[in-house]
Write a structure and sequence with these properties.
Number of helices of chain A: 12
Strand order of the largest sheet of chain B: 5-6-7-3-8-9
Number of strands of chain B: 9
Order of helices and strands of chain B: EEEHEEHHHEHEHEEHHHH
Oligomer: heterodimer
Number of domains of chain B: 1
Largest sheet of chain A: none
Number of helices of chain B: 10
Shape of chain B: globular
Radius of gyration of chain A: 18 Å
Structural class of chain B: alpha/beta
Radius of gyration of chain B: 19 Å
Helix content of chain A: over 70%
Order of helices and strands of chain A: HHHHHHHHHHHH
Number of domains of chain A: 1
């Protein structure tokens, strides 16, 4: 097969995009773009903790993202601080703590660039298995609670008054997002994760007339971005993570033009 | 007493304190099937808190809420903002959170005279259209008690009259109880069986005509309240005169709004 590592890179990116599409729709609908940023900022802390505890660093990242998600949902229940303030505090404290912790651990050499911008070309076959198992689980859960989650997104009290259990739903959404972000970190890096969630979903919005269509189209747009970005990075010798995001942006801009044309026709 | 005529919901001694603020105090409230009860009161009177307690969204700090067993409640929230980022048609919205047969959904929309909105996107609806869609949605769930929070707030006067007429019709056809929260006085008076005047505690309650003369009511809403009612009655007489129908006080205020609507259609 041609360039084995490139095929693995594409499959890994496509697996993450498959989940990032539908989740990105909820990020847009619920206006929680900041949430993705906050979760990814705690990744460095996860790396440091993973090293201290002597566990796999990616497991550390995953655990820190999940802990962060649970913390956010829990603190939201308090209703003392608005969510964006809360996220701002947690995100930047997490980032700062992570950087300080890493500075203390001189034996730990972290490829900072890799975490900031992703290292998709280093994906192993085991990584692939994890990504697709996780993606299948997340998608199955999303389909299971889809209608309830949509109603809770539209109006939380209305959903509650009709017997939808909103808190477990919110926790589920946050946790699936935490897991997806931890996985996406390898693909596009900390700095660009929110882009992978939001841009394909925004692109899909131009063409979708139902929420389901938007979710599927967002996944497709994400996969196309991964393919195009990897191809571009191969040809122009550019970093793969940013190339994927640039490709997603090009798709989005094209969709703006196409959307305009379709509306005029 | 058969189950269908039993009290829908009953609160006894319900109170609520948030932080150091006393929101509600010893609220005793009973809603029977087929009656329209309206809660009015100034801003900060605890109207929304009371409604949330009745819906089960908020636990009361004190007192008890008894619901008839198996009570189905339909909730029409005050407003709902759906951004254009979420593509969702009216028909699709009616199938949340449970799938409903298409025929049933269309019937509910037609019942409220908005069949033409079936394929419309939620974010493109006007305030009045949205209220009716929400009302249609509750009908699908065949509620025993309809709860509406400030249903007329986002709507102009004609739309309000129309909405109250619809609520009244739903009540008559389905026999469900209706709990309204409102602060627009004259319309409330027109379309309700019982008014509860709330200002942390229940100041007074009873038939609209009685409450509107109550000193506590007058002191709460001031002379303007009486005026609003007077304007309403003037309106009332006027329309009936045009139709050549004899004028009677206070008996059929709901019918009046209907007639008013018919007139506006004919004209």
């Amino acid at each position: 097969m041609l360039d084995d590592f490139l095929v693995r890179a594409f499959l890994a990116g496509a697996g993450v995009a498959l989940v990032a599409g539908p989740l990105g729709c909820f990020v847009i609908w619920r206006r929680m773009a900041y949430f993705g940023d906050s979760l990814s900022h705690t990744a460095l802390l996860g790396i440091a903790l993973g090293f201290l505890l002597g566990i796999d660093l990616e497991l550390g990242v995953m655990a820190s993202c999940i802990a962060m998600a649970i913390l956010v949902v829990g603190l939201q229940q308090q209703n003392r601080l608005p969510t964006d303030t809360l996220l701002g505090i947690l995100a930047h404290s997490g980032l700062a703590l992570g950087l300080v912790a890493i500075a203390f651990l001189d034996r730990l050499r972290v490829d900072l660039m890799g975490y900031l911008f992703g290292d998709i070309l280093a994906v192993s076959t085991t990584d692939l298995a994890w990504i697709y198992a996780g993606a299948a689980l997340v998608l199955a859960l999303l389909i299971l609670v889809w209608r309830q989650l949509l109603l809770a997104t539209l109006h939380e009290d209305l959903a509650r008054a009709e017997g939808v259990r909103v808190l477990p739903l919110r926790l589920l959404l946050m946790l699936t997002m935490a897991v997806t972000i931890a996985a996406a970190m390898k693909i596009v890096g900390v700095l660009l994760i929110t882009a992978l969630l939001i841009i394909p979903a925004a692109t899909a919005r131009r063409f979708a007339t139902t929420p389901e269509q938007m979710a599927v189209m967002a996944a497709v747009a994400g996969i196309l971005s991964v393919a195009g970005g990897l191809w571009g990075s191969l040809i122009y010798d550019t970093p793969s993570g940013p190339s994927i995001v640039v490709c997603a942006l090009v798709l989005f801009l094209t969709s703006l033009g196409l959307g305009g044309l379709l509306r005029r026709a | 007493m058969t189950n269908s005529s039993a009290t829908l919901i009953e609160t006894s001694g319900v109170g609520l304190t948030l932080g150091s603020r006393q929101i509600l105090e010893s609220i005793d409230l009973v809603i029977a099937p087929g009656e329209i009860v309206t809660v009015i009161g100034p801003n900060g009177a605890g109207k929304t808190s009371l409604l949330r307690i009745i819906l089960g969204l908020q636990k009361p700090g004190r007192g008890k809420v008894r619901r008839r067993s198996g009570l189905r409640m339909g909730y029409v929230p005050q407003s709902m903002s759906v951004g254009p980022t979420l593509p969702l048609s009216v028909l699709h919205f009616l199938s949340l959170p449970d799938r409903q047969p298409r025929q049933k959904r269309l019937e509910a929309l037609n019942e409220l005279g908005i069949g033409h909105l079936a394929e419309a996107q939620l974010y493109s609806l006007s305030g009045g259209e949205f209220q009716r869609v929400l009302l249609a949605r509750t009908l699908l769930r065949d509620p025993d008690l309809l709860v509406l929070d400030e249903p007329a707030q986002a709507i102009d006067f004609i739309g309000q009259t129309e909405l109250y007429r619809l609520i009244d019709r739903v009540r008559r056809e389905r026999g469900c109880g209706v709990l309204l929260v409102s602060h627009d006085l004259h319309l409330v008076m027109a379309a309700t069986d019982r008014v509860i005047c709330l200002n942390r505690h229940i100041c007074c309650s009873g038939e609209p005509e009685t409450v509107s003369q109550h000193p506590e009511y007058l002191s709460m809403f001031g002379p303007r309240a009486a005026q609003a009612l007077a304007v309403y009655h003037h309106h009332h007489d006027h329309h009936h005169d045009l139709d050549g129908t004899p004028v009677e006080e206070a008996d059929s205020t709901a019918r009046q709004t209907e007639q008013q609507k018919e007139n506006s259609h004919a004209g």
